[in-house]
What we know:
Layout: H1 2-18, H2 29-34, H3 36-48, H4 65-72, E1 82-86, E2 89-93, H5 96-106, E3 110-119, E4 125-135, E5 140-150, H6 159-173, H7 179-186
Antiparallel strand pairs: 1-2, 3-4, 4-5
Region (Disordered): 33-57
GO molecular function: DNA binding
InterPro entries: RAD52-like
Amino acid sequence: xxxxxxxxxxxxxxxxxxxxxxxxxxxxxxxxxxxxxxxxxxxxxxxxxxxxxxxxxxxxxxxxxxxxxxxxxxxxxxxxxxxxxxxxxxxxxxxxxxxxxxxxxxxxxxxxxxxxxxxxxxxxxxxxxxxxxxxxxxxxxxxxxxxxxxxxxxxxxxxxxxxxxxxxxxxxxxxxxxxxxxxxxxx
Length: 187
């Protein structure tokens, strides 16, 4: 039964990413579920699919954007920060999967999408534009950023994957996540 609840919750959350621009499901699930009309539709759908199995529509996940941003701006523990050396230059970074977990923890109503993939004219590099959107109870905001990787450099995986991870981390940094690392590098 617990798997069924987790599976349904996961499927409902993924709907906001899977549907197109004009759909009411494009908004975050918690926002949609907070209206009584939507709650009634979801409860009716759950009954039609086999009765009440403990699945409850929750609208208590979202918080005001100011609270979400306050959490994202906190210093990331040093144990989660990695160091990379390239061409004699050392930099600190937070791996994309850790950034993803932090976003899920502090901003569970977020979404991300690749907005564009562009190869340079000489086909030696690829750039990815990534957008991260935060949904709060009072508003929603987004930030975009780019990441660029050399097509020849496969040391950290596929070049497009590397550029996407870089763009994702940078877009999250525009909300304040891990921004302290940029300031440490300057000092």
